[in-house]
Write a structure and sequence with these properties.
Helix 2 (45-68) runs antiparallel to helix 7 (178-195) and helix 5 (126-139) runs parallel beside helix 7 (178-195). This protein is globular. It has helices at residues 16-37, 45-68, 73-89, 94-119, 126-139, 144-163, 178-195. The chain has seven helices and no strands. The protein has one domain. The longest helix is centred in the middle third of the chain and has 26 residues, at 94-119. It has 196 residues and is mainly α.
């Protein structure tokens, strides 16, 4: 087992203006997904307010992650509690909500541990694990694969596109995965009731 490296990642933060433009585009994608994909149960009564709160939190986390590379506990942890609370209030399976939160965290944290053990440096942060836990709390354990499929697919497409820009870097650039997880969570939230 190799000791964890103290190597730092190059500064890949983007400007506030660029992040704001990207989050505005994300908000448009969220709105389009909600209007075209959301099950009727997501757009009435308390579920509509829950949808607005979830979207706001995900967009805020995306902005912060793009600017700082961090997913703040002050947002992700209450988002987990809110997801479980919504399951209780909406009288859906709170057990699946709790299982989704636990499995979501365990998947990313476990992957991060394996990566760190094999490669000697952190490949994914626990902020991502907490965000996936929040996603699992909101949509349940059964839709975690959909969140990961959307997030990973879009992340890979973006990484390949960025690698083709012609800029060769020797260091490993940090990659803000939070916006992609947010899109995956939002997609699963919108389609969730249609799929189960």
């Amino acid at each position: 087992m190799q000791p964890a490296s103290t190597e730092t990642y190059p500064d890949v933060r983007i400007s506030a203006r660029t992040a704001l433009i990207l989050v505005t585009l994300l908000a448009a994608v969220y709105a389009l997904a909600f209007v075209t994909l959301a099950a009727p149960v997501r757009s009435t009564g308390i579920a509509l307010y829950a949808s607005l709160g979830l979207a706001t939190a995900l967009l805020l986390l995306s902005y912060i992650d793009m600017r700082t590379g961090l997913l703040l506990d002050v947002i992700t942890l209450p988002l987990i509690v809110a997801g479980i609370g919504f399951a209780v209030i909406a009288q859906t399976s709170w057990q699946l909500s709790i299982a989704g939160a636990v499995l979501g965290y365990a998947l990313i944290a476990g992957l991060g541990y394996v990566w760190r053990t094999l490669r000697g440096y952190d490949g994914i942060g626990l902020g991502d694990a907490k965000l996936l836990a929040a996603g699992g709390a909101w949509v349940g354990a059964g839709l975690l694969p959909l969140i990961l499929l959307i997030a990973s697919g879009l992340g890979i497409i973006s990484a390949v596109a960025l690698s083709q820009t012609g800029k060769k870097k020797r260091a490993r650039p940090a990659f803000a995965f939070g916006p992609y997880l947010g899109l995956g969570i939002w997609g699963a939230w919108c389609m969730g009731e249609l799929l189960v």
